[in-house]
Each structure stands twice: as structure tokens, then as C-alpha cells.
Amino acid sequence: MAExxxxxxxxxxxxxxxxxxxxxxxxxxxxxxxQHWRDILNRNNRAKLDGNPLSxxxxxxxxxxxxxxxxxxxxxxxxxxxxGIGTLPLTRDDGSHIExxxxxxxxxxxxxxxxxxxxxxxxxHLANTLSRERRIDVLLLINGLPVAHIxxxxxxxxxxxxxxxxxxxxxxxxMYTGLMSFVxxxxxxxxxxxxxxARPKSPSxxxxxxxxxxxxxxxxxxxxxxxxxxxxxxxPALHRLVTVNMIPDAENGNLMVMxxxxxxxxxxxxxxxxxxxxxxxxxxxxxxxxxxxGSGKTVTSFKVAQLxxxxxxxxxxxxxxxxxxxxxxxxxxFRSFAYQQFKNHIKKVKGHELKRALRLKNNxxxxxxxxxxxxxxxxxxxxxxxxxxxxxMDEAHRSASGDAVKxxxxxxxxxxxxxxxxxxxxxxxxxxxxxxxxxxSTHDIFGPRLHQYTIKDAIGDGNVLGFDVTYYETDIxxxxxxxxxxxxxxxxxxxxxxxxxxxVQDIVAHWHxxxxxxxxxxxxxxxxxxxxxxxSGKQAVVAYYHLFQKLAPELRMxxxxxxxxxxxxxxxxLQAELKQAMKNYQKTFDTQDFLESKHPEQDYVSDITRRLAxxxxxxxxxxxxxxxxxxxSDQLLTGFDSKYxxxxxxxxxxxxxxxxxxxxxxxxxxxxNAKPYGKVRFYRRGADMEDHVKNALVIYxxxxxxxxxxxxxxxxxxxxxALLNDDILASKYSQQIEKIxxxxxRLEEIAGSDFSQIPRSAKxxxxxxxxxxxxNGPVQQLMQQGYQLGTPxxxxxxxxxxxxxxxxxxxxxxxxxxxxxxxxxxxxEKLAPxxxxxxxxxxxxxxxxxxxxxxYDRLVDLLNAYMDDQTEANRKAVENHITPLDEQSQTExxxxxxxxxxxxxxxxxxxxxxxQARKAIRGxxxxxxxxxxxxxxGYSGNxxxxxxxxxxxxxxxxxxxxxxxxxxxVENEEKLGFFDRAQFEQAVQDFFASLH
Length: 996
Fold this sequence. Notes:
Blueprint: H1 3-16, E1 20-21, H2 31-44, H3 56-66, H4 72-80, E2 85-91, E3 97-104, E4 115-119, E5 122-123, E6 134-135, E7 138-142, E8 145-152, H5 162-173, E9 185-190, E10 193-198, E11 214-215, E12 221-222, H6 225-233, H7 237-241, E13 246-249, E14 254-257, H8 260-279, E15 285-291, H9 297-309, E16 316-321, H10 324-337, E17 346-348, H11 351-359, E18 367-371, H12 372-380, E19 389-393, H13 396-399, H14 402-411, E20 415-421, H15 442-446, E21 449-453, H16 455-461, E22 467-471, H17 486-494, H18 497-509, H19 511-515, E23 519-520, E24 523-524, E25 530-535, H20 538-551, E26 557-560, H21 571-589, H22 600-613, E27 629-632, E28 645-651, H23 656-663, E29 678-682, H24 686-702, H25 708-711, H26 733-751, H27 762-784, E30 792-796, E31 802-808, H28 814-830, H29 842-851, H30 856-868, H31 872-881, H32 887-901, H33 911-937, H34 941-950, H35 961-974, H36 978-995
Parallel strand pairs: 1-4, 8-9, 15-20, 15-21, 16-18, 16-19, 17-18, 19-20, 22-29, 25-27, 25-28, 26-27, 28-29
Antiparallel strand pairs: 2-3, 4-7, 5-6, 7-8, 9-10, 11-12, 13-14, 23-24, 30-31
């Protein structure tokens, strides 16, 4: 489908979904949008204006107010306004002051909200470009404000992701100012691909990792654009998307848009509450949301809390966590996400403060953050309330258990509970071989599962990484201790200095494999990542801390444990050790004296987590800020995220939810080559831990039973092993090597065994470049997993049993790999521009590269057949054959067929004559492009053609005297000023470079 036809289809679908197409405002300069907005302002503010429409001076004053929107986050705060109405201040010509209403967030699909579509708007006065105009595809207007910008691409002609670069270019040109500053969300649409993302705060912040597709309520990808429009862009969906589903992150100046699963979970909770209101029946068990660790539960829970607190019948929302440090972390996040007028309604409280707050009347709805322990203590000290409230519990799998929940529910009888968890508690499921140790499920505490987004979903979406897991076994010789039982012997072994020294030595021996970044110019950047060591008990934390001081003093370390971690004795000695560790940390990093702080342990842990996550003031990535390793017992194994933590060493036994939580400290996405998987290394009882890992992954991909009744159902057996695929657990080294080696063998054939030779023919150069691109990423990832180039890897059979065979990657050293990369760069530079792989955007260009490999001899035959018999079928055969080519190549072949129709070509082509014909066509098209560009810029086409004739690619202006002299002549004739000359010279050279 041609792009203009596709655009018409999109607009027609939008009309079907409730939008009004305004052709009278389409295909016009952007000034028309301002006049239209002015008309809407006059209409919606008729009463405030007292019948006197805006004067020119007053409207210009409002336009100046728009210039205050420096980021989409600023615009979102204006749209949100106060009480659901966005306003702008205006001083009228008579000196009176009013607030002009510009947006009605609370009037979705009704009231004064108008929904309009315009297309092909031209922008002629962009600040950051010499181009005379930019024409955009489609805008969606609500009350005249352009809140959504749509760019379409015909996927049969060009990669739809070019639209992403186009939107970034518009931003770079300075498009999103004034009225266009209200664009909140951007859409990329083609016939079978649809994506959306929040408009970034600057051109440099455009990142494809934050471009989202859509999944329906059943978790199925929605790739048909018309269905996507129905679910995401209709009325009222789009209105909600740019209001309810947008989250301003004021601390960072960013705007976030919720993903489909976050929106659906939020909607499910609100609908559950509305049903209770309609039925006039309060249920204490509202339900729970299962969203895997790392999927953005903080954002979802904040939005749910905010919306529930805004419901007329809800008095307050209590947000419950299970650790004091998480209260502070959540408070900071919530206040950063909140609109200004709501910030003061978010409060951290202790038990006695909550009792006092709940007794106050007429102080509005609040979100109170408190620990479950603090709430339980308040209930024990006679906290009671019959008001309609909601409890939201974070990490519900561990927070809600025992008598505390029963007593809180009894004290707050009109409170409904909702839980958020990445690892719910389930009953065992023998049918699917899911074994849990739980006698109470998350469903028992919170009610029905309202929405789920599993680790398998998140890995498939690229929101989190899979895991690269290694298991160790310890040989314990019993004859040295014949009187010990197996359990006693194991305990003695795992707490022995010899065992712990072996663990430390293994970590240190492989430190750079895990901590260093990807290979660049033959060198891996050292210490790019951080590690955690999780051990069994406070005493073990201290013991390992001292061993690392002794055996690896070069590593920068910290240790921490909670005061309420109740394992072992000698608390006073352990607290003394922790204080000393805090002093060491202060000395190493020149921090504040935490022991003089009001909350010493809390501030100490906060500094550690900020340092590991590279958050302010440690976002400079300076080497002196680097913390290599933190040793913990239970603390930081949940509720802490950093994409710079890539490995966790485990010397403790965990299973089910706690195991997945701990492993998930490593699987935040950063760069696939640098960090292909989150690494987990189990030192204790490796065989048992392998079973625990597999069981936990089955539980949290397939799901267990919510109720005992579920456990008694008999359903068909599913293949659990299908869940343990390469996306969730990394393949064995040998499996990856066997996929890479055939390509390396071919590369050696083309360029020599040491990759020292540049392929001679254009065909082999093109093949070399493509194959090198295909192996570069997998080799980098294999090395990041710890594989040493030149070493053999054991081969396993389908059951995971060693076969006794081994295989090695056909790269013997880092030097060989560096040589391959160097030759790849050399070859890439020799390729024609249309064949060259963009090394900075490899994935996109690889797709295009593979599409451009067609059978050229077959193309010659098809064109000759069309020359002999110019039928529609023969023409269609050529068009079908060239579909994989880029747009320019298709245009050239189409032009040749047109010339065949005109009788310009009558002799059969061979490969060489076809290339010459394409070259001639290319020259004609190139001249046309140059003359159009010159016309757009207002310059003489003949003069620009003369410049192009003497232009030399990749040559500096001063090194091309003829070009330099001619360009000065053009500048004089055009009477360009000093700054205009510099811009003109750069623009001309950039445009000419694009033609080459």
C-alpha cells in the first residue's frame, strides 16, 4: 500500500473511532493551527471572556506562555492543571486577570473536549534548520492542542523504523515548541507494525528501548495497525493515554508513558473498585497484580494509588512496604511522579502519626506510606477506622503473612486490599510438576489475580534479560570427620575458612570476565559493572568482608545487613563490625560520617544503592566513585534495581520467589553486547540449586495454583522444558559456538585465517561485511558470559549431560577478534553507501542489508521479458522481485520500465548494461533532487548543480579550492550574511554527502 493510501486508511479508521477529520485545516502551514486554537479558546472560555474574544495582543500573550514549555514534562503539568482542568494565565487588555481553560482532563469523550485529526501540516519557520519547510504526516488534536504526532511508513518500501529517526530529526530541527510543545506521545505506524512512545525531553534522549508495542488483554501482540488504532488511539483511549497514562518524572525532566500491561493492570483495579461501588458492597480482598521483577511495578502502583485517592468514595490510600528503606525510596519516587498540587498529599508516616492523621476530618484524600510492621503496631495500640480506604501492598508475596494481616483487616473493616508482586505465592501443581513450599497463597490474602506479566513476557519484550547461571559443587571428604553426620559435615564445610577462601579466590580469578565491558579496539574497558555477594547470615557477611580485605584489597567493597535480620548470635559484635565497615567506606569514598547521621544505617545503605545505580551524585561514572562489590545477607536482594549490577554470587540456599527476586538483581537491560544476560553463580550445593532454579522459573513463567481447588483440577500436561528456553536461561558455550563457527570459517576463507586480507571482489566484500556483523554481537556476548577465546567448551547432549567432547570458537585470542573487527571496518568503508552497514545502528541496518541481496541475473531476465512483452503480468513480476530493495533502487528500476514503455530501451540488458542504465537514471534523479533542494532553500538550481559537479566526498572545504571558490561566489550572489554563510556551507556539504 502506498504511503498516501495508507495515511488515508489511518485517518478513516480514526474517524471510525470517534475523531473528526478536518480537511480545511490540513495541507496547510502550521499557522492555521494557532488560529484554530484561538477559536476554540474563545468558544470554551466565552463566560470568562465576558463575550469579548481574545485580542491580538492577548493571544500573543498566551503564545508567549507556551514558550515556557521547555520539555514534554512541562507541557504535561500544564495539561493536568488543578482539579482536572489545564489553564494558562492571562492579563486582559483592561488589566483584569483570568485563567484561560485549555484542556479538560476529567472530561473524557464528553463535555467540552473536541477530538480532531489534521494531516500534512507544513512548518516553515523551524529554528534549527536551513530547510525552508518540514511536512509532517498526522496530528491528533484535543481542544486544538496537538497531543499526538503520527508518522507512517510504507513497510514494503522502507524500514518503518526510519520514522523514529524522522521524529528525532523533527525534534532536532526545533519543531516541538509553541503549540507543538504539547505533543505528549509519538506513534510509528506501518501496515503491520505499530509502536508508541512518550516524546523525549531532547533529541539526544531518543532511545528505541523506550518505544513500545501493544499487547491485548490476553497478552497477544497487536501488530495490525487498524486493531492497534482501535485499542490505543480511539476515543476515549487516546485521551486517557495522554493524561491518566502519562507520568511526569519531575526529578529528571522526563515524561513516561505506561506500557500496555501497566495500563491494563491499572484499569483492572479501578474497574474492581467501581464494581464494588455499583454493587454497594465492600470486599476486603480486591485482588493482586503479578508483574515480574523489573517490569515497572513502582510506576504502576503509583498511578493506581493516585487514581484511587482521587475516587470520591475513597478516604485514603495506605501504601504498605516491608522495610523502612523502601518507604523512603518509594516516597522519593512517588513525589517525583506526582503533579505539584498532589505532592503534599503523599506522606511517610509512623504508626502514631497515622492514627492522628486518620482522626482528622476534611483534610482531603492522602497516600500514606508505612511499613507493615508500623501499621501492625498501630493496630495493636488501638488504631481503628471504619472509613472507606484502600491498602496497596508492595512485594505482597512477603509482606502479607501471619496474624498481622488478620488483625489489620479486623481493625479496618471497610478497607479493600490490593497486592503487587513479581513472585506470587502459589500452591503446588503436581500436574505441571510445580513444587512450592507455601501453605498460604497470595490469592488467599488479596483475592483474585487481576493481571499478570511474567518473566517470560518481560524477556520477550526486551524489558529484562535472561540469566546465565553457573553451579558449583564442593567435594567434602567425610573420612576426615568420621563422627559428623552429613548435615553437620556440610555445615562445617560451608562455614569453614578454607571453603570461603576458595569462593573468594574464584570470584577474584574471574573478576575481569564479569566486571569489564565489551571489547573495543582489542581492549575491554575495565570495571564497567558491579557485583553482589549474597551469603547465609550476618556472620558470613563479616567473614567474607575480611577475606576480601585480605585476598583482594584492590577491590572496593561494602557490606551491609539489616538490624532486624535474625540469624545467629553476637549482635553487639556484629554491629561493631558494621560500624567499622561504614568507617572504611567513608574513608575509601570520602563520604559523610554516617555514624554522626540521624539515621546512620539508612543513609549508608542509601549511598551504596545510589553508587551502584549511578544516581546523583554518582552519575558522572567517575572511577573514584566506583564500588566493585557489596556483600549482603538478605538486604538489597529485593526492591533494589541497577542496570550496572551484572552478577550476583550466591553462597546461600534460596528457592521459589526469593530465589527469582535475588537473581533479578542482575537482569536490568543496558547494552546487549556488554550485558547479554544477568549472571548468577551458585557456590553452595550446585545440583540442588539447579533444581531450585528450574522449578522457580517454571513457577514464574507458567504460574502455580492460586487456590487449593485449582490444585485439584486435572488439566492437560504441558511441556515445562519449553519454558526453559534460551531466552530465559543462556545456552551452553558449545551451543553458541556451534552456531558461530560456520560463519567464522567462511570469513577465514574470504579474508585469510588471520583476517589480514581485504576481500578483492565487491561481492565478497559485501558478504564479509554482512557475516562480520552477524558474528560480532554473539562473540561479544559469549565473552561477556565468561568464555575465554581459544579455550575448549564442553559439549552436552539434549538432556544436559556432558558427552566428553569439546569444541572451540574459531578465534584463538582477543587479538584475532580485534583483527576481524579492524578488517570489518576496512571493508565497510570500501562498500557503496547503499551496501554499507551503519556500525552505530547495527540491528536496523542488518535488516536492510539482508533485504538488498537479490538475484541480479534474475532481474536482468525479468526486465528483458518485459521489454519483449509489456504486459501487466511481466511488469508485476519485476515489481515483486525488487520489493526487498531500498526505495531509491526500486525507483531506478521503475524508471527503467517506464523508459521501456517509451521505447528508449530496445536492446536486451546484460548485467553491465543494466548497471549503466541504472547509473544514468540515478544521475537524472540526482539532478532532480538537487534542483528540488535548491528550490526549497530559495537558491539557484544551476548554481547548486555547478557546486555539485566539483564537490568531492570526504574532502575538507579548504582542500578543494575549486569548490571553495565557487561556494564563495554563490554566497556573494545570494548576499548571505556572516552566520548565514557558515550555515549555508554546512548545509550544502551535508546535502551533497547524503547524495553520495
